[in-house]
Amino acid sequence: MGRGKIEIKRIENQTARQVTFSKRRSGLLKKTHELSVLCDAQIGLIIFSGTGKLCEYCSQPLRMEQIIDRYLKVTGTRLPEHHDNREQLFHEIAVLRRETCKLELSMRPYHGQDITSIPPNELDELEQQLELSVQKVRDRKNELLQQQLDNLSRKERMLQEENNNMYRWIQEHRAAVEYQQVAMEGKPPENQQFLEQLQFYGEQPSSVLQLATIPSEIHPYSLQLAQPNLQDIC
């Protein structure tokens, strides 16, 4: 029994379509090669798949470029040459140059140039545009300055807070040292004398820099371990 006649139409299933393309492409290339060898024919075959993949065949010893050149000569088809593209590029460059010159001329009045021939109404409009531009620049400048001032104020508050923390730490450290000295040696606290000396030199210091200005006669307390008397032990 012979094969049934296959209806020639697009295969909707993508997998089946790719399988059919692969099989029929191989058969077409085989038949093309046989025709070229048996009949001494010069054949150039170019195939693009549905996915854009290129497949070609050219009769030996020719190249595909030779086959295409022969086809163009026989059919009289003329491909665009390179100088045509250059002419198009030169034309586009000339157009861009003219547009650039127009823009430069239109911007000259904004720099105070070529304004002698401008009528009064256009000068008023130009003045308003310049004032609006200047106002925008000033607003942006003031915004940046305000941001800088805010940053400086924030840094100042942080430094002041660190300064106050350092002062409190010094006060607590001195009080702890005095307490340890009283507990170990049984001496009366001298913090009162220290505070009286501070009051004598002015109000209570509010920063480490003010503490640095206190006279050198006021020294912080330091712990010193008492050495035992060896004679008493003996």
How would you characterize this protein structure?
There is one protein chain. By secondary structure, the protein is mainly alpha-helical. Among the domains are: 14-75, SRF-like, CATH 3.40.1810.10; 81-117; 123-183. The protein is built from 7 helices and 2 strands. The protein has helices spanning 14-39, 64-75, 82-107, 120-185, 191-200, 208-212, 230-233, and strands at 44-48, 54-58. Strands 1-2 form a two-stranded antiparallel ribbon. The protein is flat and about 125 Å long. Residues 195-234 have low confidence and may be disordered.
Task: Please name the defining characteristics of this protein.
flat; 7 helices; two-stranded antiparallel ribbon; 234 residues; mainly alpha; single chain; disordered C terminus; SRF-like; 64% helix
Cα separation of the termini: 134 Å
The proportion of strand residues reads under 5%
CATH class of the domain at 14-75: Alpha Beta
* Name of the CATH architecture of the domain at 14-75: 3-Layer(aba) Sandwich
Fourth-tier CATH superfamily name of the domain at 14-75: Transcription factor, MADS-box
Strand order of the largest sheet: 1-2
Largest sheet: 2 strands, antiparallel
Helix content: 55-70%
Structural class: mainly alpha
Give the CA-based shape.
flat
Oligomer: single chain
Total helix count? 7
- What is the mean predicted local confidence, pLDDT? 78
- The number of E-state strands comes to 2
Instruction: Report the radius of gyration as a whole number of Å.
Output: 49 Å
Coiled coil: 123-165
Subcellular location: Nucleus
InterPro entries: MADS-box/MEF2_TF, MEF2-like_N, TF_Kbox, TF_MADSbox, TF_MADSbox_sf
Domain MADS-box: 1-61
